[in-house]
Amino acid sequence: MENQSALPAAPAAETAGHRYASRALWAAAVGYALDGFDLLVLGFMLPVIAAALRLSAAQSGALVSWTLVGAVAGGIGFGMLSDRFGRVRVLSWTILLFAVFTGLCALARGYWDLLLYRTVAGVGLGGEFGIGMALAAEACAPAQRARASSFVALGWQAGVLAAALLTPLLLPVIGWRGMFAVGLAPAVVSFLMRRALGEPRLFLEQRAREPRPAGSLRLLVKDGPTTRASVGVAILCSVQNFGYYGLMIWMPSYLARTFGYSLTRSALWTAVTVVGMAFGIWLFGRLADRIGRRPTFIGYQVGALVMVFVYARLQSPGALLIGGAIMGLFVNGMIGGYGALISELYPTEARATAQNVLFNIGRAVGGFGPLVVGAVALAWSFKAALGLLASLYALDVLATLWLIPERKGVVLD
After folding, report:
1. What is the CATH number of domain 14-209?
2. I want to staple 343 with a disulfide (CB 3.0 to 4.6 A). Which of 137, 265, 302, 373 is the partner?
């Protein structure tokens, strides 16, 4: 009789686990969507803000640059805080900080106070990727970890798409100050998320074993194999961000200057590339869970090398449209796998730190992508710049082969 009465407990626990995993995935994806939404909205609004506050071109560019600087600092700091105080708690802090200081941007009277608000908002923004990825990895079953990672990564694409659709509709009606005021909405998301979602079981178990964990940053280089993996992941994240920003910032100009495309046509061709990126992220998660992390990364890296090189030589509109989508699939699809890869390489007490530190090293390096591509294009040609980008993926392949171990489906410790 005791055995019979105990039977329903397993399905009930399993159902509760699935429900928690679903909520955790959505919380992480929404946080990363805010990241993509904010950066693209700022890009749309810069000309209007510059006119209203009489900003120079250098000052306008600095608003974007210092947002990224804040994101790098916030990513590193909040990653370590998350490993100490909890995924959900610190993720809610990052969203709240981002929301409050984005709202304050609506009150800016000039360049310096707006720069301060944007930088601090960037600090909040920077923590969301790595903490969300750690939360998703710890909440999901090992066999679905890469798919969970790709779902969170798709949040960025959803945020970019929402910004592209909503900004042209809202900006003429509520102005740039109103758009920043809309940024207060994530504060509500933060409050609701904190109430509805507890910390993952894996984190709570680790904290019970070690109430006062040692510094998480040193665990990224605790021994030879871990140090090699950290260097390898930093290379992968750097190439990922360098290629993404280098392509996305310059693609509209490349199409306009080389082929005489109008702004509308350049935007449409770029949007198709973004759709290819989203499909690539979705596909990466499924392949990585089926055949492994390393084979999938190498396949995408080789695909990116080939397709960037091929894209630079396409001429007809149809070929550029299809080629851009396939190139996007490989170039940005890899971001769907970093959450699972990094989660499996590091212990629970350093997982969020590893996610945020290594990815934000890549983000810092990737910030030079548009600068380098622009300089090479100016000195030689856009085709030469794209050729340079293609060659970087060869470095990616070598780093994956020599530095990254395969840990597909391991039980997280």
Report:
1. 1.20.1250.20
2. 137
